[in-house]
Design a protein that fits this description.
The chain has 500 residues and is of the alpha+beta class. Helices cover 71% and strands 8% of the residues. The radius of gyration is 39 Å and the shape is elongated.
Length: 500
């Protein structure tokens, strides 16, 4: 479809929207100003000619019939002058606030400035071309500014929220937002009904009833930040517009609602949006921090897993070399026996047994291959494990639960945590260790609770090995979001994972 066809279609839609907005507006609640400003602020520059065409056409439709009363010069030329003059303000705003975050931050001030600029342009064009209300009174000018200000918000806020929806998508709960919008709409409908019910009472009662309409803005802001504030302000603003008298009556004015609108212009449409922006930025920073922490933990877990795979491959290679050496040793023992050198053969057998025991201990420290075969409980019960990590100290075990139901990752992590804990507690020079493990599987989570303690024979003497073990233990616990509690020579570690 050609670009000009899309542009012309947009101009036609704009004219229809402008006419509908004009016939449902008053000076103190002027929707066409919001429609014009929202288009100039949010549409790409290539669409501006079509917006100008639509805006000028709508104004001509409204003002040409009034030529006999207000003058032909104003009726035919003011639409061109007014649209051009008003567009200068949004153009400057777009040049100065050229990113969405800064624009949202300064939105209340921008809306107030553009509302004042719009009123000033109307007054200047009327004075230049001899139109009606050449110099409005202060009261009338204030109604115009408030009307332009609130009209800008009621059109601009939903459009801007849709445009930057991706920025807040990560911190918004769509179901909760929809539910709260329905609650806010129900509340303002109830308040409007109550205000109509007390219409014939005194001014204070009526104003109090209308002030209750601000509560949805507070509710939406605190719940959802800037998006909630934007929707809350739009809903409240729309409700106040509906509560106005016959909008087709030119010059119509409702003083009670105008007071409420002034309060809203100062409080709701300004303070709540600023507060909402601050809350949203805080939530975004927290969300980014959580994501960064989660990414760091994921990277650390991936690094540990890669290291375990590399250690496993090295262990298998070493085991193959050991088997080859064992085969050559057996052949040599047979050759010695055949040549009557039985003493040398027995000595070689003894050395081979010692080398095999030493290999088993070193292999257990490198990678606990037995976890894959028999699970964590059997791996830590292995004599090679106790000899390598506990030395001459006695190791007592207490193991319960379906440990084989846990993933290999968490079993390896638990094994490494036990190793680091023993290395850390070795600074007490204990003669006895106690390792208690309890595994469980729930509906949503499963895990294992480790209790490692030592019976010290001397006071704590911090060593380089102990400090290194503590650093490695803390790194693994943080990577797996585990918790640890230390009470002297006793450590309690909780490791969990999702059941599925």
């Amino acid at each position: 479809m050609p670009v000009y066809a899309i542009g012309l279609a947009f101009s036609i839609v704009y004219v229809l929207a402008y006419m509908a907005a004009w016939f449902n507006s008053l000076d103190q609640w002027f929707l066409p100003a919001g429609l014009r400003v929202a288009g100039l602020l949010l549409l790409p520059y290539r669409m501006w000619p079509y917006l100008f065409l639509g805006d000028v056409s709508a104004l001509l439709l409204l003002r040409v019939p009034r030529a006999p009363y207000d003058g032909e010069l104003w009726s035919y030329l003011s639409p061109f002058f007014l649209t051009t003059a008003v567009s200068i303000g949004p153009l400057i705003v777009r040049r100065v606030l050229n990113d969405s975050e800064t624009f949202v931050k300064w939105l209340p001030a921008v809306a107030l400035l553009l509302a004042s600029w719009g009123v000033l342009c109307n007054v200047a064009v009327n004075a230049l071309l001899g139109g009606p209300n050449v110099i409005p009174s202060v009261e009338h000018a204030s109604r115009l500014v408030v009307g332009f200000y609130l009209g800008t918000f009621i059109v601009l806020l939903p459009a801007l929220l849709w445009r930057i929806r991706g920025k807040y998508a990560s911190i918004l709960e769509k179901k909760a937002l929809l539910r709260d919008v329905l609650i806010a709409v129900s509340w303002v409908v109830l308040v409007c009904y109550l205000a109509g019910y007390v219409r014939d009472t005194d001014m204070g009662t009526r104003m109090g009833a209308y002030l209750l309409i601000f509560l949805p803005g507070v509710f939406m802001t605190t719940r959802h930040g800037w998006p909630g504030a934007a929707l809350g302000v739009a809903i409240t603003n729309l409700a106040l517009g509906v509560a106005l008298p016959d909008p087709q009556m030119e010059g119509g004015h409702e003083p009670i609602i105008f007071v409420v609108q002034q309060v809203m212009a100062v409080v709701m449409a300004t303070a709540y949006l600023v507060l909402g922006f601050s809350l949203s930025e805080t939530k975004l920073k927290e969300h980014r921090s959580r994501n960064a922490a989660a990414d760091a933990k994921s990277l650390a877990r991936t690094s540990f897993a890669s290291t375990e795979r590399l250690l496993r491959e090295n262990l298998l290679y070493m085991a193959q070399v050991q088997l080859m050496l064992e085969g050559e040793r057996k052949d040599l023992v047979e050759w010695l026996k055949q040549h009557g050198k039985f003493e040398a053969a027995m000595s070689l057998n003894s050395d081979g047994l010692q080398h095999r025991q030493l290999f088993d201990e070193q292999a257990m420290a490198l990678y606990p291959i037995r976890i894959e075969e028999a699970g964590l409980f059997r791996a830590v019960h292995d004599k090679a494990f106790c000899d390598f990590w506990a030395g001459d100290a006695v190791v007592n075990f207490g193991c319960r639960g379906p440990v084989r139901e846990l993933s290999m990752d968490i079993q390896l992590t638990a094994f490494r945590c036990i190793c680091h804990s023993i290395a850390l507690l070795s600074d007490y020079s204990p003669d006895e260790y106690s390792i208690n493990m309890r595994a469980w599987c729930g509906h949503q989570t499963k895990g294992i609770l480790l209790r490692i303690s030592a019976i010290p024979t001397s006071s704590l003497e911090v060593s380089q090995a102990g400090q290194t073990a503590e650093m490695l233990l803390e790194a693994r616990l943080k990577a797996h979001s585990a918790s640890m509690r230390r009470n002297g020579p006793r450590l309690t570690i909780l490791l969990t994972e999702m059941a599925n």
